[in-house]
Structure formats: structure tokens, C-alpha cells
Specification:
Layout lengths: L3 H18 L5 H15 L4 H18 L1 H9 L12 E9 L4 E6 L4 E3 L1 E2 L8 E5 L5 E5 L4
Parallel strand pairs: 4-6
Antiparallel strand pairs: 1-2, 1-5, 2-3, 5-6
């Protein structure tokens, strides 16, 4: 008795679950089901197919998932990397009053603090290494 349909259904169900979860968990069971499907095509008995399904699925999950997750998350950060980005001061920067805004080239405004203590009411600023800290200086004409 062939179990090809069973393995294709398992692969399809796992792929569908993965498509909605994006957890990179069930996609490895798709691989295992496809290996079991191939084993069935080659005439392996059902016990061997199940063993292959489980071993391949777990090995892929343990060995490949961390690599794929690391690759998928590469370059992502909680905050855009804006160190060195230049902007225009659009609200007076006052560290004591906790006020100040800087507009960047993409027309987004960010709260700003001066690295030197006080800041101008107009001019340019450059993003420092600390979140929200801009080195502000007056524009020279």
C-alpha cells in the first residue's frame, strides 16, 4: 500500500500552517514529508518512511532553523541606524526643558537633545551615537 498521498497531504498542511505563522517551525516538517514521499516512491516500508520523516524534520529544525532565523533578521534593528545623519532643527533644542525636534532629509521629525547642553532654535544638526542626541550647530551663511 502506497502512502504517497499521506505524505503529500502532510507536506501541504504543514506548508499552509507555515504560510500563516511565519515561525519557521513547520516548514521543516514539509521537508521531512517530502523525503518520506521520495522514500515511498523508492519502495521503503512505512516504518522507514515515518523514521525518515521524523529524523529529517527534527534535524532540519535543530540545524537549519537558527541559520535561517539569523539570516532573516540580519540588518534589522529596533531603531533605524541614523548615526551621522544630518537634519534641520525645527524646534528649539533645550535639554533642560526636554524640548527640541530635528527634521531629517526624509521629512521625518525626531525628538532631539543636544550633546553640548544647549541647542539652537534654527540651523543644522548631526545625529550622534546615543539615541535622540544630535550635535546641533548654527548654520553659517
Amino acid at each position: 500500500m502506497s502512502h504517497m498521498v499521506l505524505w503529500l497531504v502532510v507536506a501541504a498542511v504543514m506548508a499552509l500552517i507555515e504560510a500563516f505563522s511565519f515561525g519557521l517551525i513547520t516548514m521543516w516538517f514539509v521537508v521531512g514529508a517530502l523525503v518520506a514521499f521520495v522514500a515511498d516512491l523508492l519502495g521503503a516500508n512505512f516504518v522507514v518512511q515515518v523514521a525518515l520523516f521524523l529524523v529529517v524534520s527534527v534535524l532540519c529544525l535543530v540545524l537549519l532553523r537558527p541559520v535561517v532565523v539569523k539570516h532573516r533578521n540580519r540588518g534589522h534593528s529596533a531603531e533605524p541606524t541614523l548615526v551621522g545623519e544630518r537634519g534641520v532643527v525645527c524646534e528649539t533644542i533645550d535639554n533642560d526643558g526636554l524640548t527640541g525636534r530635528v527634521e531629517l532629509s526624509d521629512h521625518m521629525t525626531w525628538s532631539a537633545r543636544s550633546a553640548t547642553g544647549g541647542g539652537p532654535s534654527c540651523g543644522h544638526a548631526r545625529r550622534g551615537r546615543c539615541p535622540g542626541v544630535y550635535q546641533a550647530h548654527r548654520q553659517t551663511v
